[in-house]
Design brief:
Strand content: 15-25%
Number of strands: 8
Distance between the termini: 6 Å
Shape: elongated
Largest sheet: 8 strands, mixed
Order of helices and strands: HEHEEHEEHHHEEE
Structural class: alpha+beta
Radius of gyration: 18 Å
Number of helices: 6
Helix content: 40-55%
């Protein structure tokens, strides 16, 4: 989408976002290639800077500045860049605090069942694998169908479903 189309989408309630990438090749791969989500301290996914619809802070220029901070050395041999995008207003999203609380409840339930499972059983192995997968909050959110979640009281989002986005050319 061109910049005019992006502005129209944001004005219509799409969530404006920017992502800094270390290499320009990474920007192109994000748009058209295979998705390789990162692993951050707040779960696996694609970390972006964004703002809620109707919010004036941070504005588009500030989102870009925040993303540029993570995009590498602009004067280097392979300068980074910024990918500008917007998330569909109907995307399924939540916040990290709520998501973590639900995940922790589910893990507690699995652990309780694990205590009852016989040693060296297929059920025990299955429960241990579920704990391993769901312990990462990003993987937990993706398994529950979320498109993204916002890290509490910050302008940082973790995008899990790239198809919920439009991206500027």
């Amino acid at each position: 989408m061109d910049s005019d189309g992006m502005r129209e989408a944001v004005d219509a309630g799409w969530i404006e976002m920017s992502r800094g990438v270390r290499r320009l090749q990474d920007a192109e791969e994000f748009k058209t290639g295979s998705l390789f989500p990162g692993q951050g301290g707040n779960g696996s996914g694609t970390y972006v800077f964004g703002r809620e619809p109707g919010s004036s802070e941070p504005d588009s220029a500030r989102l870009r500045e925040m993303a540029e901070h993570w995009s590498g050395d602009p004067g280097g041999a392979d300068p980074g860049g910024v990918v500008r995008m917007a998330m569909h207003p109907d995307a399924l999203r939540t916040d990290l605090h709520s998501l973590t609380a639900r995940r922790d409840e589910e893990l507690e339930s699995i652990r309780a069942e694990l205590e009852q499972a016989p040693e060296k059983s297929a059920r025990r192995t299955e429960l241990e694998e579920r704990i391993n997968v769901l312990s990462d909050v990003g993987r937990y959110a993706a398994s529950r169908g979320y498109d993204a979640y916002r890290i509490n009281d910050m302008h940082v989002w973790v995008v899990l479903n790239r198809t919920a986005l439009i991206v500027e050319r």
